[in-house]
Amino acid sequence: MIVLDIISWALIVSGAFFSIVGGIGIIRFPEFFSRLHGGGITDTMGAALILLGLMFQSPNSLVAIKLVMILFFLLVTSPSSCHALSNSALAQGHWPELDTTRKSKNK
Amino acid sequence: MMFIVAAISILITMCLALIRAMLGPTVFDRVLALNMFGTKTVLLICAICFLTDRTDFLDLALLYSLMNFIGMVALLRFSHYTSFGEEVS
Amino acid sequence: MNSFPIIRIVSKLLIPYILLFALYVQFHGDFGPGGGFQAGVILASALILYGLVFGLPAAQSVAPPWLIEKLIALGVLVYAGTGVATMALGSNFLDYDALEHHFLTDVTWGSQTLHVLPSGQHLGIFLVEVGVGITVTSVMLMIFYCFAGRNQSSE
Amino acid sequence: MIYIDIIILTLLAVTAVTVARIRDLWAAVMFTGIYSFIGASWMLLLDAPDVAFTEAAVGAGISTVLMLGTLALTNKAEKPSTSVPVVPFLVVLGTGAALVYGTLDMPHFGDPEAPVHQHPNPSFVERSQPDMHGLPNVVTAVLASYRGYDTLGETAVIFTAGIGVLIILRRDKRTAPDEHSSDEVVT
Question: What is the CA radius of gyration of chain D?
Fold first, then answer.
Protein backbone atom coordinates (compact mmCIF):
# COMPACT_ATOMS: atom_id res chain seq x y z
CA MET A 1 0.00 0.00 0.00
CA ILE A 2 2.91 2.33 0.81
CA VAL A 3 4.28 1.73 -2.70
CA LEU A 4 0.92 2.59 -4.29
CA ASP A 5 0.72 5.75 -2.19
CA ILE A 6 4.18 6.83 -3.29
CA ILE A 7 3.34 6.20 -6.95
CA SER A 8 0.09 8.15 -6.59
CA TRP A 9 1.85 11.05 -4.90
CA ALA A 10 4.46 11.23 -7.63
CA LEU A 11 1.89 11.07 -10.44
CA ILE A 12 -0.51 13.56 -8.86
CA VAL A 13 2.17 16.07 -7.98
CA SER A 14 3.67 15.93 -11.46
CA GLY A 15 0.18 16.19 -12.98
CA ALA A 16 -0.56 19.20 -10.80
CA PHE A 17 2.76 20.73 -11.88
CA PHE A 18 1.96 20.24 -15.58
CA SER A 19 -1.56 21.63 -15.29
CA ILE A 20 -0.42 24.74 -13.41
CA VAL A 21 2.41 25.26 -15.91
CA GLY A 22 -0.11 25.00 -18.75
CA GLY A 23 -2.38 27.45 -16.94
CA ILE A 24 0.46 29.94 -16.60
CA GLY A 25 1.23 29.36 -20.27
CA ILE A 26 -2.30 30.15 -21.36
CA ILE A 27 -2.01 33.48 -19.53
CA ARG A 28 1.53 34.46 -20.49
CA PHE A 29 1.92 33.40 -24.12
CA PRO A 30 1.62 36.30 -26.57
CA GLU A 31 -0.89 35.06 -29.16
CA PHE A 32 -3.48 32.40 -29.87
CA PHE A 33 -1.42 29.72 -31.60
CA SER A 34 1.19 29.58 -28.86
CA ARG A 35 -1.56 29.54 -26.24
CA LEU A 36 -2.82 26.33 -27.83
CA HIS A 37 0.41 24.78 -26.60
CA GLY A 38 -0.35 25.66 -22.99
CA GLY A 39 -3.91 24.42 -23.32
CA GLY A 40 -2.71 21.19 -24.90
CA ILE A 41 -0.31 20.45 -22.04
CA THR A 42 -2.99 20.78 -19.36
CA ASP A 43 -5.56 18.85 -21.35
CA THR A 44 -3.41 15.81 -22.07
CA MET A 45 -0.36 15.59 -19.81
CA GLY A 46 -1.87 17.07 -16.64
CA ALA A 47 -5.19 15.26 -17.00
CA ALA A 48 -3.59 11.92 -17.83
CA LEU A 49 -1.12 12.06 -14.93
CA ILE A 50 -3.76 13.08 -12.38
CA LEU A 51 -6.18 10.40 -13.58
CA LEU A 52 -3.41 7.78 -13.47
CA GLY A 53 -2.57 8.85 -9.95
CA LEU A 54 -6.23 8.51 -8.93
CA MET A 55 -6.38 5.10 -10.59
CA PHE A 56 -3.81 3.70 -8.14
CA GLN A 57 -6.08 4.74 -5.26
CA SER A 58 -9.29 3.20 -6.62
CA PRO A 59 -11.01 0.91 -4.12
CA ASN A 60 -12.29 -1.57 -6.72
CA SER A 61 -11.82 -2.41 -10.37
CA LEU A 62 -15.07 -0.76 -11.53
CA VAL A 63 -13.79 2.64 -10.41
CA ALA A 64 -10.49 2.03 -12.21
CA ILE A 65 -12.35 1.06 -15.41
CA LYS A 66 -14.48 4.20 -15.20
CA LEU A 67 -11.33 6.30 -14.79
CA VAL A 68 -9.80 4.59 -17.84
CA MET A 69 -12.93 5.43 -19.84
CA ILE A 70 -12.81 9.07 -18.71
CA LEU A 71 -9.14 9.21 -19.72
CA PHE A 72 -9.96 7.70 -23.12
CA PHE A 73 -12.73 10.20 -23.83
CA LEU A 74 -10.59 13.13 -22.68
CA LEU A 75 -7.68 12.02 -24.85
CA VAL A 76 -9.99 11.65 -27.86
CA THR A 77 -12.10 14.79 -27.55
CA SER A 78 -9.74 17.45 -26.26
CA PRO A 79 -6.97 17.28 -28.91
CA SER A 80 -9.52 17.00 -31.70
CA SER A 81 -11.33 20.11 -30.52
CA CYS A 82 -7.95 21.89 -30.25
CA HIS A 83 -7.29 20.88 -33.85
CA ALA A 84 -10.69 22.16 -34.98
CA LEU A 85 -10.09 25.43 -33.12
CA SER A 86 -6.75 26.09 -34.80
CA ASN A 87 -8.17 24.99 -38.14
CA SER A 88 -11.04 27.43 -38.00
CA ALA A 89 -8.73 30.18 -36.68
CA LEU A 90 -6.53 29.68 -39.75
CA ALA A 91 -9.59 29.62 -41.99
CA GLN A 92 -10.74 32.97 -40.59
CA GLY A 93 -7.44 34.66 -41.43
CA HIS A 94 -5.44 34.46 -38.22
CA TRP A 95 -1.81 33.54 -38.71
CA PRO A 96 0.91 32.83 -36.11
CA GLU A 97 2.71 36.07 -35.32
CA LEU A 98 5.88 34.21 -34.45
CA ASP A 99 6.03 32.66 -37.91
CA THR A 100 8.58 34.73 -39.83
CA THR A 101 8.78 32.56 -42.91
CA ARG A 102 5.35 33.46 -44.29
CA LYS A 103 3.68 36.81 -44.24
CA SER A 104 0.66 37.22 -42.01
CA LYS A 105 -2.59 37.01 -43.89
CA ASN A 106 -4.42 39.69 -41.99
CA LYS A 107 -1.65 42.26 -41.92
CA MET B 1 -4.25 14.64 1.54
CA MET B 2 -3.09 13.93 -2.01
CA PHE B 3 -6.63 14.47 -3.28
CA ILE B 4 -6.68 17.90 -1.64
CA VAL B 5 -3.41 18.74 -3.39
CA ALA B 6 -4.89 17.60 -6.71
CA ALA B 7 -8.12 19.55 -6.17
CA ILE B 8 -6.32 22.75 -5.16
CA SER B 9 -3.99 22.60 -8.16
CA ILE B 10 -6.93 21.95 -10.50
CA LEU B 11 -8.77 24.91 -8.97
CA ILE B 12 -5.73 27.16 -9.52
CA THR B 13 -5.63 26.09 -13.17
CA MET B 14 -9.37 26.78 -13.45
CA CYS B 15 -8.81 30.31 -12.13
CA LEU B 16 -6.07 30.89 -14.73
CA ALA B 17 -8.30 29.57 -17.53
CA LEU B 18 -11.14 31.81 -16.34
CA ILE B 19 -8.83 34.85 -16.47
CA ARG B 20 -7.90 33.98 -20.06
CA ALA B 21 -11.57 33.51 -20.96
CA MET B 22 -12.30 37.01 -19.63
CA LEU B 23 -9.29 38.69 -21.28
CA GLY B 24 -9.34 36.70 -24.51
CA PRO B 25 -8.89 39.14 -27.39
CA THR B 26 -10.22 36.74 -30.01
CA VAL B 27 -13.13 34.33 -29.98
CA PHE B 28 -10.74 31.38 -30.25
CA ASP B 29 -8.86 32.28 -27.07
CA ARG B 30 -12.14 32.15 -25.19
CA VAL B 31 -13.11 28.80 -26.65
CA LEU B 32 -9.67 27.39 -25.87
CA ALA B 33 -10.09 28.52 -22.26
CA LEU B 34 -13.58 26.98 -22.15
CA ASN B 35 -12.22 23.67 -23.42
CA MET B 36 -9.50 23.70 -20.78
CA PHE B 37 -12.05 24.63 -18.12
CA GLY B 38 -14.22 21.66 -19.10
CA THR B 39 -11.31 19.23 -18.86
CA LYS B 40 -10.36 20.65 -15.47
CA THR B 41 -13.97 20.24 -14.29
CA VAL B 42 -13.87 16.55 -15.18
CA LEU B 43 -10.67 16.19 -13.15
CA LEU B 44 -12.10 18.20 -10.26
CA ILE B 45 -15.18 16.00 -10.11
CA CYS B 46 -12.96 12.89 -10.03
CA ALA B 47 -10.88 14.42 -7.23
CA ILE B 48 -14.00 15.39 -5.23
CA CYS B 49 -15.39 11.87 -5.66
CA PHE B 50 -12.20 10.42 -4.15
CA LEU B 51 -12.03 13.15 -1.52
CA THR B 52 -15.55 12.48 -0.20
CA ASP B 53 -15.12 8.72 -0.78
CA ARG B 54 -18.20 8.41 -2.99
CA THR B 55 -16.59 6.93 -6.06
CA ASP B 56 -19.85 5.70 -7.57
CA PHE B 57 -20.50 9.25 -8.76
CA LEU B 58 -17.76 9.08 -11.38
CA ASP B 59 -20.57 8.78 -13.97
CA LEU B 60 -20.85 12.54 -13.67
CA ALA B 61 -17.26 13.02 -14.83
CA LEU B 62 -17.84 10.57 -17.66
CA LEU B 63 -20.91 12.54 -18.73
CA TYR B 64 -19.04 15.84 -18.65
CA SER B 65 -16.18 14.49 -20.75
CA LEU B 66 -18.76 13.65 -23.43
CA MET B 67 -20.91 16.79 -23.09
CA ASN B 68 -17.94 19.15 -23.25
CA PHE B 69 -17.31 17.98 -26.81
CA ILE B 70 -20.89 18.75 -27.89
CA GLY B 71 -20.67 22.28 -26.51
CA MET B 72 -17.34 22.79 -28.26
CA VAL B 73 -18.71 21.57 -31.60
CA ALA B 74 -21.71 23.88 -31.27
CA LEU B 75 -19.57 26.92 -30.44
CA LEU B 76 -17.14 26.17 -33.29
CA ARG B 77 -19.90 25.58 -35.78
CA PHE B 78 -21.57 28.84 -34.81
CA SER B 79 -18.36 30.83 -35.08
CA HIS B 80 -17.72 29.25 -38.47
CA TYR B 81 -21.05 29.37 -40.24
CA THR B 82 -23.10 31.77 -38.07
CA SER B 83 -26.12 29.52 -38.46
CA PHE B 84 -27.14 25.93 -37.88
CA GLY B 85 -29.34 25.10 -40.70
CA GLU B 86 -27.45 24.79 -43.94
CA GLU B 87 -26.99 21.48 -45.62
CA VAL B 88 -23.61 19.80 -45.35
CA SER B 89 -23.12 17.06 -47.87
CA MET C 1 -18.37 20.97 -40.77
CA ASN C 2 -17.18 19.76 -44.15
CA SER C 3 -13.69 21.13 -43.61
CA PHE C 4 -13.21 19.27 -40.32
CA PRO C 5 -12.61 15.61 -41.18
CA ILE C 6 -11.22 14.90 -37.70
CA ILE C 7 -14.33 16.27 -36.00
CA ARG C 8 -16.50 14.11 -38.25
CA ILE C 9 -14.53 10.96 -37.44
CA VAL C 10 -14.42 11.70 -33.70
CA SER C 11 -18.17 12.35 -33.68
CA LYS C 12 -18.75 9.03 -35.44
CA LEU C 13 -16.61 7.43 -32.75
CA LEU C 14 -18.33 9.16 -29.83
CA ILE C 15 -22.03 9.02 -30.78
CA PRO C 16 -22.43 5.27 -30.06
CA TYR C 17 -20.86 5.76 -26.64
CA ILE C 18 -23.15 8.68 -25.84
CA LEU C 19 -26.20 6.62 -26.86
CA LEU C 20 -24.98 3.70 -24.75
CA PHE C 21 -24.35 6.00 -21.80
CA ALA C 22 -27.87 7.42 -22.15
CA LEU C 23 -29.33 3.91 -21.99
CA TYR C 24 -27.14 3.18 -18.95
CA VAL C 25 -28.42 6.30 -17.19
CA GLN C 26 -32.00 5.41 -18.11
CA PHE C 27 -31.97 1.85 -16.82
CA HIS C 28 -29.44 2.24 -14.03
CA GLY C 29 -31.23 5.27 -12.59
CA ASP C 30 -32.91 3.15 -9.94
CA PHE C 31 -29.53 2.17 -8.53
CA GLY C 32 -27.30 5.21 -9.03
CA PRO C 33 -27.68 8.85 -9.94
CA GLY C 34 -29.76 9.41 -13.04
CA GLY C 35 -33.21 8.74 -14.36
CA GLY C 36 -35.54 9.48 -17.21
CA PHE C 37 -34.98 13.22 -17.54
CA GLN C 38 -31.20 13.05 -17.65
CA ALA C 39 -31.22 10.05 -19.99
CA GLY C 40 -33.61 11.80 -22.35
CA VAL C 41 -31.43 14.90 -22.49
CA ILE C 42 -28.27 12.83 -23.15
CA LEU C 43 -30.00 10.83 -25.90
CA ALA C 44 -31.23 14.04 -27.52
CA SER C 45 -27.79 15.62 -27.33
CA ALA C 46 -26.26 12.63 -29.13
CA LEU C 47 -28.71 13.16 -32.00
CA ILE C 48 -28.13 16.92 -31.87
CA LEU C 49 -24.37 16.31 -32.19
CA TYR C 50 -25.12 14.22 -35.27
CA GLY C 51 -27.22 17.04 -36.65
CA LEU C 52 -24.56 19.66 -35.91
CA VAL C 53 -21.78 17.73 -37.62
CA PHE C 54 -23.53 16.06 -40.53
CA GLY C 55 -26.27 18.58 -41.23
CA LEU C 56 -29.94 18.84 -40.34
CA PRO C 57 -31.27 16.61 -43.18
CA ALA C 58 -29.06 13.73 -42.03
CA ALA C 59 -30.38 14.01 -38.48
CA GLN C 60 -33.95 14.24 -39.76
CA SER C 61 -33.51 11.09 -41.77
CA VAL C 62 -32.41 9.28 -38.60
CA ALA C 63 -35.21 10.67 -36.42
CA PRO C 64 -37.93 11.94 -38.76
CA PRO C 65 -39.99 14.86 -37.41
CA TRP C 66 -43.35 13.12 -37.86
CA LEU C 67 -42.12 10.30 -35.61
CA ILE C 68 -40.79 12.75 -33.02
CA GLU C 69 -44.17 14.51 -32.91
CA LYS C 70 -45.88 11.22 -32.14
CA LEU C 71 -43.27 10.31 -29.51
CA ILE C 72 -43.84 13.58 -27.57
CA ALA C 73 -47.36 12.40 -26.84
CA LEU C 74 -46.38 8.73 -26.43
CA GLY C 75 -44.17 9.44 -23.42
CA VAL C 76 -46.95 11.14 -21.45
CA LEU C 77 -49.27 8.34 -22.55
CA VAL C 78 -46.91 5.70 -21.15
CA TYR C 79 -46.71 7.55 -17.83
CA ALA C 80 -50.42 8.12 -17.47
CA GLY C 81 -51.15 4.68 -18.91
CA THR C 82 -49.17 3.11 -16.07
CA GLY C 83 -51.49 4.91 -13.66
CA VAL C 84 -54.57 3.75 -15.54
CA ALA C 85 -53.22 0.20 -15.57
CA THR C 86 -52.83 0.24 -11.80
CA MET C 87 -56.41 1.50 -11.53
CA ALA C 88 -57.59 -1.28 -13.82
CA LEU C 89 -55.83 -3.79 -11.59
CA GLY C 90 -57.92 -2.54 -8.67
CA SER C 91 -55.62 -0.12 -6.90
CA ASN C 92 -55.10 3.65 -6.72
CA PHE C 93 -53.76 5.80 -9.56
CA LEU C 94 -49.97 5.28 -9.80
CA ASP C 95 -49.92 2.78 -6.93
CA TYR C 96 -47.36 0.38 -8.33
CA ASP C 97 -47.96 -2.35 -5.77
CA ALA C 98 -50.75 -3.53 -8.03
CA LEU C 99 -48.16 -4.42 -10.69
CA GLU C 100 -46.79 -7.22 -8.53
CA HIS C 101 -46.50 -10.41 -10.54
CA HIS C 102 -44.79 -13.74 -10.09
CA PHE C 103 -43.68 -14.49 -13.64
CA LEU C 104 -39.90 -14.99 -13.86
CA THR C 105 -39.19 -12.58 -11.00
CA ASP C 106 -36.64 -14.70 -9.18
CA VAL C 107 -34.77 -17.40 -11.06
CA THR C 108 -32.30 -19.53 -9.13
CA TRP C 109 -29.38 -20.31 -11.37
CA GLY C 110 -26.65 -22.26 -9.70
CA SER C 111 -26.00 -20.72 -6.33
CA GLN C 112 -27.27 -17.20 -7.03
CA THR C 113 -30.74 -15.73 -7.41
CA LEU C 114 -31.29 -13.62 -10.52
CA HIS C 115 -33.96 -10.93 -10.83
CA VAL C 116 -35.04 -11.41 -14.43
CA LEU C 117 -38.15 -9.26 -14.72
CA PRO C 118 -38.83 -6.31 -12.40
CA SER C 119 -41.94 -6.54 -10.28
CA GLY C 120 -44.20 -4.28 -8.28
CA GLN C 121 -42.71 -0.92 -7.36
CA HIS C 122 -39.62 -1.58 -9.46
CA LEU C 123 -41.69 -2.26 -12.60
CA GLY C 124 -43.78 0.86 -12.00
CA ILE C 125 -40.74 3.10 -11.57
CA PHE C 126 -39.18 1.51 -14.66
CA LEU C 127 -42.24 2.23 -16.85
CA VAL C 128 -42.64 5.76 -15.53
CA GLU C 129 -38.99 6.62 -16.18
CA VAL C 130 -39.27 5.22 -19.70
CA GLY C 131 -42.23 7.56 -20.31
CA VAL C 132 -40.34 10.58 -18.97
CA GLY C 133 -37.31 9.67 -21.08
CA ILE C 134 -39.31 9.38 -24.32
CA THR C 135 -41.04 12.72 -23.80
CA VAL C 136 -37.87 14.61 -22.86
CA THR C 137 -35.86 13.19 -25.78
CA SER C 138 -38.49 14.06 -28.36
CA VAL C 139 -39.23 17.54 -26.96
CA MET C 140 -35.52 18.48 -26.93
CA LEU C 141 -35.04 17.16 -30.47
CA MET C 142 -38.15 18.93 -31.68
CA ILE C 143 -36.95 22.26 -30.24
CA PHE C 144 -33.60 21.78 -32.00
CA TYR C 145 -35.32 20.95 -35.31
CA CYS C 146 -37.50 24.04 -35.00
CA PHE C 147 -34.55 26.40 -34.36
CA ALA C 148 -32.33 24.88 -37.04
CA GLY C 149 -35.08 24.71 -39.64
CA ARG C 150 -36.04 28.31 -38.92
CA ASN C 151 -32.49 29.51 -39.63
CA GLN C 152 -32.39 27.51 -42.81
CA SER C 153 -35.55 28.98 -44.24
CA SER C 154 -34.77 32.54 -43.19
CA GLU C 155 -31.56 32.74 -45.17
CA MET D 1 -11.97 21.07 2.30
CA ILE D 2 -13.36 24.46 3.33
CA TYR D 3 -10.88 26.15 0.97
CA ILE D 4 -12.30 24.20 -1.97
CA ASP D 5 -15.80 25.44 -1.07
CA ILE D 6 -14.61 29.02 -0.81
CA ILE D 7 -12.72 28.92 -4.13
CA ILE D 8 -15.64 27.34 -5.99
CA LEU D 9 -18.13 29.87 -4.60
CA THR D 10 -15.80 32.74 -5.55
CA LEU D 11 -15.49 31.37 -9.08
CA LEU D 12 -19.30 31.09 -9.28
CA ALA D 13 -19.73 34.73 -8.21
CA VAL D 14 -17.04 35.97 -10.62
CA THR D 15 -18.57 34.05 -13.54
CA ALA D 16 -22.07 35.31 -12.75
CA VAL D 17 -20.88 38.94 -12.65
CA THR D 18 -19.04 38.38 -15.94
CA VAL D 19 -22.16 36.99 -17.61
CA ALA D 20 -24.09 40.05 -16.49
CA ARG D 21 -21.39 42.55 -17.49
CA ILE D 22 -20.26 41.24 -20.87
CA ARG D 23 -21.68 42.84 -24.02
CA ASP D 24 -20.76 40.18 -26.57
CA LEU D 25 -23.67 37.76 -26.30
CA TRP D 26 -21.71 34.93 -27.88
CA ALA D 27 -19.16 35.16 -25.06
CA ALA D 28 -22.03 35.35 -22.55
CA VAL D 29 -23.33 31.99 -23.82
CA MET D 30 -19.83 30.61 -23.36
CA PHE D 31 -19.68 31.91 -19.80
CA THR D 32 -23.01 30.26 -18.96
CA GLY D 33 -21.30 27.02 -20.01
CA ILE D 34 -18.51 27.76 -17.51
CA TYR D 35 -21.15 28.59 -14.89
CA SER D 36 -22.74 25.19 -15.45
CA PHE D 37 -19.37 23.47 -14.98
CA ILE D 38 -18.75 25.18 -11.64
CA GLY D 39 -22.38 24.72 -10.57
CA ALA D 40 -22.21 20.97 -11.09
CA SER D 41 -19.02 20.73 -9.02
CA TRP D 42 -20.71 22.72 -6.26
CA MET D 43 -23.80 20.48 -6.32
CA LEU D 44 -21.51 17.47 -6.01
CA LEU D 45 -19.81 19.02 -2.99
CA LEU D 46 -23.26 19.53 -1.45
CA ASP D 47 -23.95 15.78 -1.81
CA ALA D 48 -26.65 16.25 -4.44
CA PRO D 49 -25.41 14.05 -7.30
CA ASP D 50 -28.81 13.81 -9.00
CA VAL D 51 -29.05 17.60 -9.34
CA ALA D 52 -25.43 17.71 -10.49
CA PHE D 53 -26.26 15.07 -13.08
CA THR D 54 -29.14 17.12 -14.44
CA GLU D 55 -26.95 20.22 -14.51
CA ALA D 56 -24.24 18.31 -16.37
CA ALA D 57 -26.66 16.85 -18.90
CA VAL D 58 -28.48 20.11 -19.62
CA GLY D 59 -25.96 22.85 -18.93
CA ALA D 60 -22.95 22.03 -21.06
CA GLY D 61 -24.55 20.49 -24.14
CA ILE D 62 -28.18 21.23 -24.87
CA SER D 63 -28.54 24.69 -23.36
CA THR D 64 -25.44 25.95 -25.22
CA VAL D 65 -26.85 24.63 -28.49
CA LEU D 66 -30.29 26.12 -27.89
CA MET D 67 -28.94 29.52 -26.79
CA LEU D 68 -26.71 29.67 -29.86
CA GLY D 69 -29.74 28.77 -31.95
CA THR D 70 -31.58 31.70 -30.40
CA LEU D 71 -28.60 33.99 -31.06
CA ALA D 72 -28.67 32.98 -34.72
CA LEU D 73 -32.16 34.49 -34.89
CA THR D 74 -31.19 37.77 -33.15
CA ASN D 75 -28.27 40.15 -32.86
CA LYS D 76 -24.86 39.15 -31.55
CA ALA D 77 -24.30 42.13 -29.23
CA GLU D 78 -26.36 43.57 -26.42
CA LYS D 79 -27.68 47.10 -26.87
CA PRO D 80 -25.68 49.36 -24.50
CA SER D 81 -27.84 51.17 -21.99
CA THR D 82 -27.08 54.85 -21.43
CA SER D 83 -29.02 55.71 -18.27
CA VAL D 84 -27.56 55.02 -14.83
CA PRO D 85 -30.05 52.74 -13.05
CA VAL D 86 -30.24 54.28 -9.55
CA VAL D 87 -33.67 53.10 -8.43
CA PRO D 88 -33.22 49.46 -9.56
CA PHE D 89 -29.84 49.43 -7.82
CA LEU D 90 -31.43 50.61 -4.55
CA VAL D 91 -34.19 47.99 -4.88
CA VAL D 92 -31.62 45.23 -5.46
CA LEU D 93 -29.51 46.48 -2.55
CA GLY D 94 -32.54 46.50 -0.23
CA THR D 95 -33.65 43.03 -1.28
CA GLY D 96 -30.14 41.68 -0.88
CA ALA D 97 -29.81 43.19 2.60
CA ALA D 98 -33.18 41.68 3.61
CA LEU D 99 -32.09 38.26 2.31
CA VAL D 100 -28.78 38.44 4.18
CA TYR D 101 -30.72 39.41 7.32
CA GLY D 102 -32.97 36.41 6.69
CA THR D 103 -30.04 34.00 6.53
CA LEU D 104 -29.14 34.87 10.14
CA ASP D 105 -32.17 32.87 11.30
CA MET D 106 -31.40 29.86 9.14
CA PRO D 107 -30.18 26.63 10.75
CA HIS D 108 -26.57 25.64 10.33
CA PHE D 109 -25.49 23.69 7.28
CA GLY D 110 -26.17 20.00 7.78
CA ASP D 111 -28.12 20.50 11.02
CA PRO D 112 -30.25 17.35 11.53
CA GLU D 113 -32.89 19.41 13.40
CA ALA D 114 -33.42 21.75 10.44
CA PRO D 115 -36.99 21.93 9.07
CA VAL D 116 -35.76 20.72 5.68
CA HIS D 117 -34.74 17.45 7.24
CA GLN D 118 -37.84 17.16 9.45
CA HIS D 119 -40.78 18.24 7.31
CA PRO D 120 -40.84 15.60 4.55
CA ASN D 121 -40.91 12.80 7.03
CA PRO D 122 -37.43 11.27 7.48
CA SER D 123 -39.12 7.91 7.56
CA PHE D 124 -39.21 8.07 3.75
CA VAL D 125 -35.56 7.08 3.75
CA GLU D 126 -36.22 4.20 6.13
CA ARG D 127 -39.47 3.15 4.46
CA SER D 128 -37.99 3.22 0.98
CA GLN D 129 -35.83 0.14 1.47
CA PRO D 130 -38.61 -2.39 2.21
CA ASP D 131 -41.19 -0.56 0.05
CA MET D 132 -39.06 -0.55 -3.07
CA HIS D 133 -37.79 -4.13 -2.77
CA GLY D 134 -34.24 -2.91 -2.24
CA LEU D 135 -33.89 -0.14 -4.82
CA PRO D 136 -31.03 1.84 -3.32
CA ASN D 137 -31.64 5.27 -4.90
CA VAL D 138 -34.05 7.06 -2.58
CA VAL D 139 -34.25 10.10 -4.89
CA THR D 140 -35.67 8.02 -7.73
CA ALA D 141 -38.04 6.26 -5.34
CA VAL D 142 -39.38 9.57 -4.00
CA LEU D 143 -39.65 11.16 -7.47
CA ALA D 144 -41.27 8.29 -9.30
CA SER D 145 -43.27 6.53 -6.63
CA TYR D 146 -44.04 8.58 -3.50
CA ARG D 147 -44.36 11.78 -5.54
CA GLY D 148 -45.65 10.17 -8.72
CA TYR D 149 -48.35 12.81 -9.30
CA ASP D 150 -45.76 15.62 -9.21
CA THR D 151 -43.58 13.90 -11.76
CA LEU D 152 -46.59 13.30 -13.99
CA GLY D 153 -47.26 17.03 -13.77
CA GLU D 154 -43.65 17.82 -14.65
CA THR D 155 -43.80 15.54 -17.67
CA ALA D 156 -46.99 17.29 -18.72
CA VAL D 157 -45.18 20.65 -18.37
CA ILE D 158 -42.38 19.45 -20.69
CA PHE D 159 -45.04 18.15 -23.09
CA THR D 160 -46.79 21.53 -23.05
CA ALA D 161 -43.50 23.36 -23.63
CA GLY D 162 -42.80 21.15 -26.63
CA ILE D 163 -46.26 21.84 -28.05
CA GLY D 164 -45.77 25.59 -27.51
CA VAL D 165 -42.42 25.64 -29.33
CA LEU D 166 -43.98 23.62 -32.14
CA ILE D 167 -46.85 26.08 -32.52
CA ILE D 168 -44.64 29.17 -32.46
CA LEU D 169 -41.61 28.09 -34.47
CA ARG D 170 -42.56 25.30 -36.84
CA ARG D 171 -42.93 25.99 -40.50
CA ASP D 172 -45.21 23.45 -42.01
CA LYS D 173 -44.52 22.29 -45.53
CA ARG D 174 -48.14 22.79 -46.47
CA THR D 175 -48.21 26.45 -45.38
CA ALA D 176 -44.69 27.38 -46.51
CA PRO D 177 -45.46 27.86 -50.26
CA ASP D 178 -48.40 30.12 -49.39
CA GLU D 179 -46.14 32.39 -47.33
CA HIS D 180 -43.64 32.70 -50.15
CA SER D 181 -46.32 33.45 -52.72
CA SER D 182 -47.85 36.12 -50.47
CA ASP D 183 -44.37 37.63 -50.01
CA GLU D 184 -43.95 37.79 -53.74
CA VAL D 185 -47.29 39.53 -54.08
CA VAL D 186 -46.30 42.13 -51.49
CA THR D 187 -42.88 42.79 -52.96
Answer: 23
CA-CA-CA-CA torsion sign (A21, A24, A25, A28): negative
The domain tally of chain A equals: 1
Our count of domains for chain B comes to: 1
Which one-letter amino acid corresponds to residue D22?
A: I
Give the number of domains in chain D: 1
By CB atoms closer than 10 A (0-12, 13-18, 19+), residue D109 is exposed
Is residue B89 assigned to a domain? no
Considering its fold, how many domains does chain C have in total?
1
Please name which of B40, A76, B3 lies closest in space to residue D40, comparing C-alpha atoms: B40
Element (H, E) at C115: strand C112-115
B9 touches chain D (CB under 8 A): no
Longest Cα separation, chain D: 72
Q: Shortest CA distance to C61 belongs to which of C135, C145, C150? A: C145
CB contact under 8 A, A16 and B9: yes
Task: Give the integer Cα–Cα distance in Å for D38 and A29.
Answer: 26
Task: Please give the ipTM for the structure prediction.
Answer: 0.85
CA of D100 to nearest chain C CA: how many angstroms apart? 33
Query: Tens digit of pLDDT per residue, chain D (187 long)?
Result: 788 889 999 999 999 999 988 888 888 888 999 999 999 999 988 888 888 888 888 888 889 888 888 887 777 677 777 777 889 999 999 999 999 999 888 887 777 777 777 766 666 667 776 666 667 777 777 777 888 888 899 999 999 999 998 888 876 655 544 444 444 444 4
The pTM (predicted TM-score) of the whole model is 0.86
Q: Tell me if chain D has a CB within 8 Å of the CB of B18.
A: yes
Residue A83 to residue C6, Cβ atoms within 8 A? yes
